[in-house]
Amino acid sequence: MSSIALALIGIGMIITGYVLYSRFLATKVYALEPDGVTPSHELADGVDFVPTNKFVLWGHHFTSVAGAAPIVGPAIAVIWGWLPAFLWVTIGTVFFAGAHDMGALWASSRNKGKSMGALSERYIGKRGSRLFLVVIFLLLLMVNAAFAVVIAGLLVSTPTAVIPTWGAIAVAIVIGQVLRRGWGGLGLASVVGVLALYALILLGNAVPISLPDSTFGLPANSVWIILLFLYAGVASVLPVWMLLQPRDYINGLQLFVALGLLYASVLIASPTIVAPAINQNVPEGTPGIVPLLFVTIACGAISGFHGMVCSGTSSKQLDKEPDIRFVGYFGAVGEGLLALGAILATTAGFATLEAWQATYSEFGAGSVGAFVQGGGAIVESGLGLPASLANTILATTAILFAATTMDTGVRLQRFVVQEMGEVAGVKLGKGSSTIIALIVAVGLTFGAGSDGSGGMLIWPLFGTTNQLMAGLTLSVVAVMVLRRGRSAMPLIIPLVFVLSMSVFALFVQMGTFWNDQNWLLLGLDIVILVCAVWIIIEATSAMRSAQADGPDVDWAQERAREKAPR
What is the DSSP string of 367-432? Predict the structure, then answer.
């Protein structure tokens, strides 16, 4: 199979989805209001609620939802062959992720920027909302702990990425001040920021930095993990304009430059896809493609974590409601293109089928390492960049995206801790809730030893929990759409599919955990399954009631408020 043909078909499908399907969703499903008053204006506080240029907000949103997952998932899933991964990424991006992300952003914006956990109480019920918070808390815990371990591992294995990783923070702070104080336009800040970031990549490639094997008795990766959590804790309480927005925006531009290099290299070098379309000789122990494909590739097709970002930070920065189409759907497009790039890198970046099979010798192999190795080889062949520089660019890209997701993840965990405190009748401030979120994540990360391996303890449940969250988010949005008297089928179809695959996967994994006598994961699996089934029953009942009752008179009042002049 020609890598050029696969790239062009995939890009064409995804971009066509944005041009046509997102317009349909914006007008017929969500009915976006140009004159609607968004939470960033109604509740502006200069910290979390900040009206933001849609391009800057897109950068924050895209890099927050992307992380390393749209690289890791496809890079593992191609073990079943490139065709299933390709179809799920392209179809999922167009019909699943776009509708989900737009819907979550719209639902939160119409409800004063409230999180999906809070929205679930209004639209599904109090009992369902309590269980919803449990699922959200566990998912964020997995993301924060595991991404810290992933980033630390890349900093150890790729010391050339250390300088650009940490230098990007300084670049973001400067860009944030420039934009806030109006010292230059967005275009100039964008060019200067990207050039500064790539200058740091060149410097890092020339000056690799490695920590000592042991510092105060801790291995290098553990030191990086501690530093990452300290940084994420501070970043999570700073005003979004100071670090989060400019960092994510510049990282988003950097990713598109990196993707441009990768896709340009594919067009120039035209590498052959050596992996089979459907792998008939998967390694022993590889689970069945159904349902595992649909939970292995989450980000890049559809991801529940996106709903938490949409309702946790992005909705609070939305300037105008029509921006939802660009921020939400085009954010999903960016992630789909990243996942497609990961498929190309991990199937066409190897010289022979034998070399590919050597890397994919067992399920879970490949991952970020295969992306960096394969993508680096393509860029080296296509553009003639030195292999070390190509690897540094791709490794830095993966690290920066994982780091921005971790930034947002800790901020979201703080919101969830505060919501849980409200349920318990305890009011928690930003500082105390952030400390609690960090203690829990750090405790899990180092729970299995000083090497930080505990951060991956509950990662096997990430895919199923993440997709389960996506289905639950779609259920909340579907209830809102039905109560406005509009068709919710564009939401119900992906909702049913994703929930079916998620519950199926929970049962499959339950058997695996039982056979392995992994009682921790078995217990968590059961807890998540019980929560899922309960919420599904509550959500189904809410959707039936919404459809039977017809449009709610409250929505007329809401529309009048949204159209009120600012």
Answer: HHHHHHHHHHHHHHHHH---HHHHHHHHHHHHHHHHHHHHHHHHHHHHHHHHHHHHHTT----HHH
- Rounded Cα distance, 240 and 184, in Å: 19
Residues constituting the chain? 566
Query: Which structure tokens are listed for 380?
Result: 């080296």
Under 8 Å between Cβ of 246 and 190? no
Torsion sign over Cα 18, 21, 27, 31: negative
Q: Is 318 helix (H, G, I), strand (E, B) or coil?
A: strand
Q: What angle do CA 384, 390, 395 make, to 5 degrees?
A: 170
Task: Report how far residue 99's alpha carbon sits from residue 114's, in angstroms, rounded to the nearest whole number.
Answer: 19
Q: 214 pairs with which residues across the strands?
A: 219
User: pTM surpassing 0.70?
Assistant: yes
Looking up tokens 């590889």 gives 286
Tell me the C-alpha to C-alpha distance, in Å, between residue 566 and each of 43, 359, 556, 562. 12, 58, 18, 9
Give the C-alpha separation, 378 to 374, whole Å: 6
Residue-wise over 474-505: b if at least 16 C-beta within 10 A, else e?
bbbbbbbbbbbeeebebbbebbebbbebbbbb
**Number of C-beta neighbours around residue 72 at 10 A:** 28
User: Which tokens is 563 given?
Assistant: 């159209």
Kindly give, in sequence order, each residue whose CB lies less than 8 Å from that of residue 54, ignoring residues fewer than 6 positions away. Answer: 319, 320, 323, 326, 327
Amino acid identity at 136? I
Kindly give the interhelix angle for 98-109 and 330-348, rounded to the nearest 10 degrees.
150
- Do β-strands 214-215 and 218-219 pair in parallel, antiparallel, or remain unpaired? antiparallel
Give me 360's structure tokens.
């994919």
Beta strand spans in 143-208 (E) = none
Token pair 């317009």: residue? 23
pLDDT by residue for the chain (566 residues), tens only, comes to 789 999 999 999 999 999 999 999 999 999 999 988 899 999 988 878 989 899 889 887 887 787 677 888 899 899 999 999 999 999 999 999 999 999 999 999 999 998 887 888 888 877 767 777 778 888 888 888 888 888 888 888 889 989 998 998 999 899 888 888 877 777 888 888 889 988 999 999 999 999 888 888 888 889 999 999 999 888 888 887 888 778 878 877 877 788 888 899 999 989 999 999 999 988 988 888 998 899 889 888 999 889 988 988 899 999 999 999 999 999 999 899 989 999 999 999 888 999 999 989 888 777 777 888 888 889 888 888 888 888 888 888 878 878 877 887 888 888 888 888 887 788 888 889 989 989 988 888 887 677 676 766 666 778 888 888 898 899 999 999 998 889 899 999 999 999 999 899 889 989 888 988 888 888 888 988 888 888 788 888 888 887 776 665 455 555 554 455 44
